[in-house]
Design a protein that fits this description.
Elements: H1 19-25, H2 33-42, H3 44-49, H4 54-60, H5 63-70, H6 73-91, E1 109-112, H7 128-143, E2 147-152, E3 160-163, E4 169-172, E5 184-185, E6 195-199, E7 205-215, E8 218-224, H8 232-235, H9 246-271, E9 278-282, H10 289-299, H11 304-313, E10 315-318, E11 329-331, H12 332-337, H13 350-357, E12 368-370, H14 371-377, E13 381-384, H15 387-396, E14 412-413, H16 420-423, H17 426-436, H18 438-447, H19 450-453, H20 461-489, E15 509-514, H21 530-537, E16 544-549, H22 557-571, E17 579-582, H23 587-596, E18 599-602, H24 614-619, E19 624-628, H25 631-636, E20 642-645, H26 655-679, H27 688-701, H28 707-728, H29 731-747, E21 752-758, E22 770-778, E23 787-795, E24 806-814, E25 821-829, E26 835-844, H30 863-867, E27 871-872
Parallel strand pairs: 1-2, 1-9, 2-8, 9-10, 10-13, 13-14, 15-16, 15-18, 16-17, 18-19, 19-20
Antiparallel strand pairs: 3-4, 5-7, 6-7, 7-8, 11-12, 21-22, 22-25, 23-24, 23-26, 24-25, 26-27
Organism: Streptomyces vulcanius
Pfam family, one: DUF3417
Domain DUF3417: 13-122
Length: 874
């Protein structure tokens, strides 16, 4: 019989065991082995059934067992030690608190993301974006960075994946009861739940409660619209991650951005937490947070333009997509309907809202509101998530900065990292702890101290190889368990599944491939030549085995067809013991999969992988990477760490031909270089060259891929400058900057480069020569202090484009003359040989600008002047 109503019965813990509840509600247990061991000892059998979730564990422990533990002095001592350790972790000084010049660091940073993958026990993520956000919070906690996370609480999470008998993906959306999750309601002082509200068209409102997940030292605020005050439609706004139509998504993003700022203000008011000086939006989904902050400042007396400058100063925007199709875009009229006098932010002119997100640049679609474009316009600092992705992003968004070369677009990069304590297998951690001690090993994983990774060089080859064998054996056991469960879900009877007991072999080279399944990630590239793949899988001396997992978006039938194609191949009785597809890829599966693989495969279409952190997690466990040079692998690849799959970038636009070429290159690598190295044995019977690569991966690559390194870079390169800019942007300063920008934009049409001359008139010059440049410019209503006149010089390509330019500012020496022209002069040193050229340009300049490109305006010579401005050196 089915229940007509569901509710949660919370356990009543005996007084000595009450601290267990506090430990369960702080998600540090998800990356702290000692705390997990403590919970496991409460009831090992139930711990396994609860999938390692302390809240579910405590909800099912028998009262008799709780009473027994309440009298167990040894258990109580362990409990006290765990509670004291958590207290020290949460309150003690960490990296952030020990930095010189701490006063320049932000008092707090608000970090917004549509999804957070902190632990499988809190399934609020779909893929890499959410896992990255969870790792960011955990690394910030380990480093003591005062972050406040902001997201949504989805009642169905993303989706659970199963397969039909013929291999078609099926989606299931289990209901998540917040009372059964490791979260607590944020409450007002009188005990009532704290609320935020948004105004909707037609006089309606969208209300949301605020749930708090404590991630170590970091609070994560999650908004939930499933409250009685809402109508049915509004209750469903936070129903599922990335679900529904355009208006549903718009409401989610308004709640995340606008409601998220209001939730942060409420949390700081109730707890005394320092208010954020920096707001960081992880992708464009939370971009509306900038509008809410503008509205706050306007309510305090600032005009819109001044408030915009104040908000931009303290905002950081991170883009994760390398393709325009990956960005949320809404119809102009849909956005207009949800703002203004009859809806949200009524005191802000709707046209000003729209102007922030409209694609009003060459190549844009003028009737679409682009969330990433709004994010960039509302942030003074922006970044991609790898060096290559930074370059791709500068090209993709160059239209916002017309007149500038793509490499000058003000988007930098901070390469992603992964939270090692979450992703490193306990067996790997124990091996490291034997070398340097548990605390030093823990510090190395959190902060990335290179000297502590060097000790891997002292670990005997035998120990490394035994560890790899142990992890592979664990993966085989896990795969067989999941494979059996999957086949039972597909309708198979137990009598059909005897073959599963021999699926995979702990002694065979194991390749992992697991990720979301958009077409560009090319799940089925390995199937391009099935006969050749079969030969690799069934090789009599050097076989391989492959574990594959991944989810296609519920609306992506093309992705589902790719999953089905892979599943049908893996169902073939000839190879099903060598290749498997595991449905329902998530954090719990990933934590078993990464350590157990010998090779991590990644074969996206370059350069469409923004970063690709799964290979980082595998590397931290001694797994070698086999990948296209894309994302982070393009940046840090060395032959010591794995293999680069050659790409066919120059074969034209035929995707099938390109896939054939790159698949052949993949097979060649496996046949000729990878499998021979894995199976060859040295004098001691060990694969010496393979072990050497594992050692180099751990020693040299390990410290680079850490989320601790990533968060430190965010602090030093983005958060600290943003905090300083925020503090400098007083109301008067914001008004000054807004007025100056308005003056510059109004006058820029009259800014011209009228004449350029040098002290050398020939087409050649000697290395080391210094030229004297004289430039006559028109500034219209601007003064020399409003601009910087620059000489840009460097090597030129065949089309006379400067490819590695350096800039030198020129100084005003006279003016204005009768024609209103100014004369600027300066030296130009010829410091490189070969084809060399220069030009002159004028940029706006102000002490409060983060970049000369910030206004997106530049003046350059007319074509005929530019043609005569080059210098050729031999």
């Amino acid at each position: 019989m089915k229940a007509i109503r569901r509710f949660t019965v919370r356990p009543l813990l005996p007084e000595p065991l009450r601290p267990l509840s506090d430990l369960a509600r702080n998600l540090r247990w998800s990356w702290h082995p000692e705390t997990r061991d403590l919970f496991q000892s409460v009831d090992p059998e139930r711990w396994a059934v609860s999938d390692g979730d302390p809240v579910r564990l405590l909800g099912g422990v028998r009262p008799a067992r709780l009473a027994e533990l309440a009298e167990d002095r040894r258990f109580l001592r362990r409990l006290t030690a765990a509670v004291d350790d958590l207290h020290d972790y949460v309150t003690g000084d960490r990296w952030y608190q020990t930095q010189t010049g701490t006063a320049g660091l932000p008092a707090a940073v608000a970090y917004f993301s549509p999804e957070f993958g902190v632990t499988a026990a809190l399934p609020q993520y779909s893929g890499g974006l959410g896992i990255l956000a969870g790792d960011h919070l955990k690394a910030a906690s380990d480093l003591g960075v005062p972050l406040i996370g902001v997201g949504l609480l989805y009642r169905h999470g993303y989706f659970r994946q199963t397969l039909s008998r013929d291999g078609w993906q099926q989606e299931h959306y289990p209901v998540l009861d917040p009372n059964e999750l490791p979260v607590t309601l944020l409450r007002e002082d009188d005990g009532t739940p704290a609320r935020v509200s948004l105004a909707l068209p037609g006089g309606k409102s969208l209300h949301a409660r605020i749930w708090l997940a404590q991630v170590g030292r970091v609070p994560l605020l999650m908004l939930d619209s499933d409250v009685e005050e809402n109508d049915l439609g509004e209750r469903g706004v936070t129903d599922r991650l990335y679900g529904g139509g355009s208006e549903h998504r718009l409401l989610q993003e308004m709640l995340l951005g606008i409601g998220g700022v209001r939730a942060v203000r409420t949390y700081c008011r109730l707890t005394g937490h320092a208010p954020p000086e920096v707001f960081h939006t992880n992708e464009g989904h939370a971009g509306f947070l900038g509008l809410e902050r503008i509205a706050e400042l306007c309510a305090g007396g600032l005009d819109f333009d001044s408030a915009l400058e104040a908000v931009r100063a303290g905002t950081v925007f991170t883009t994760h997509t390398p393709v325009p199709a990956g960005i949320d875009r809404f119809d102009r009229e849909l956005v207009a309907r949800h703002f203004g006098p009859d809806a949200e932010l009524p005191r802000i002119d709707v046209e000003r809202v729209l102007r922030l997100g409209m694609e009003t640049y060459e190549g844009g679609e003028p009737n679409l509101f682009n969330m990433a474009v709004m994010g960039l316009r509302l942030a003074q600092r922006a970044n991609g998530v790898s060096l290559l992705h930074g370059r791709v992003s500068r090209g993709m968004f160059a239209g916002l900065w017309p007149g500038f070369d793509a490499d000058e677009v003000p988007i930098t990069s901070v390469t992603n990292g992964v939270h090692a304590p979450t992703w490193v297998a306990p067996e790997v951690l124990r091996l490291g702890a034997r070398q340097v001690g548990a605390q030093r090993a823990e510090d190395a994983l959190a902060v990335g101290a290179g000297d502590r990774w060097d000790v891997v060089a002292d670990i005997p080859d035998q120990d490394i190889w035994e560890l790899r064998r142990e992890l592979r054996e664990q993966l085989v056991v896990e795969v067989r368990r999941r494979l059996r469960a999957s086949w039972r879900q597909r309708g198979a009877g137990e009598a059909e599944l005897g073959w599963i007991d021999s699926a995979l072999d702990p002694g065979v080279l194991t390749i992992g491939f697991a990720r979301r399944v958009p077409s560009y990630k090319r799940l089925t590239l390995m199937l391009r030549d099935r006969d050749r793949l079969m030969d690799l899988l069934l090789h009599p001396e050097h076989p391989i085995q492959i574990v594959v997992a991944g989810k296609a978006h519920p609306a992506d039938d093309g992705g589902k067809r790719l999953v089905q194609e892979l599943v049908r191949f893996a169902d073939d009785p000839r190879v099903r013991h060598r290749i498997v597809f595991l449905p329902d890829y998530g954090m719990a599966m990933a934590q078993k999969l990464y350590p157990g693989c010998d090779i991590w495969l990644n074969n996206p279409l370059r350069p469409l992988e923004a970063c690709g952190t799964s290979g980082m997690k595998a590397a931290l466990n001694g797994c070698l990477n086999l990948s296209v040079l894309d994302g982070w692998w393009d940046e840090w690849f060395q032959p010591d760490f794995g293999w680069a799959i050659p790409t066919a970038d120059g074969v034209g636009t035929d995707p099938d031909h390109r896939d054939d070429i790159e698949a052949a290159a993949l097979y060649d690598l496996l046949e000729q270089r990878i499998t021979p190295r894995f199976y060859e044995r040295g004098r001691a019977g060990l694969p010496d060259r393979w072990i050497a690569m594992v050692r180099q991966t751990l020693t040299l690559l390990g410290p680079k891929v850490l989320a601790g390194r990533m968060v430190r870079e965010y602090v030093e390169r983005l958060y600290a400058p943003a905090a300083q800019a925020h503090r400098a942007m007083t109301p008067d300063t914001a008004r000054e900057l807004a007025a100056w920008k308005g003056k510059v934009r109004a006058a820029w049409h009259a800014v011209t480069v009228d004449h350029v001359e040098t002290s050398v008139a020939t087409a050649t010059a000697e290395l080391g020569t210094t030229l004297a440049l004289r430039v006559r410019v028109g500034l219209g209503d601007l003064a020399p202090d409003d601009v910087e006149v620059q000489a840009v010089s460097g090597r030129v390509d065949e089309e006379d484009r400067i490819t590695d330019g350096s800039t030198v500012p020129l100084k005003p020496v006279s003016g204005p003359d009768l024609d209103g022209r100014w004369l600027f002069e300066g030296p130009l040193s010829l410091d490189r040989t070969g084809p060399y050229g220069y030009t002159v340009r004028i940029l706006p300049t102000h002490r409060l600008l983060a970049s000369g490109a910030e206004l997106g305006v530049v003046a350059v010579p007319a074509d005929e002047l530019a043609q005569g401005a080059g210098v050729l050196m031999r």
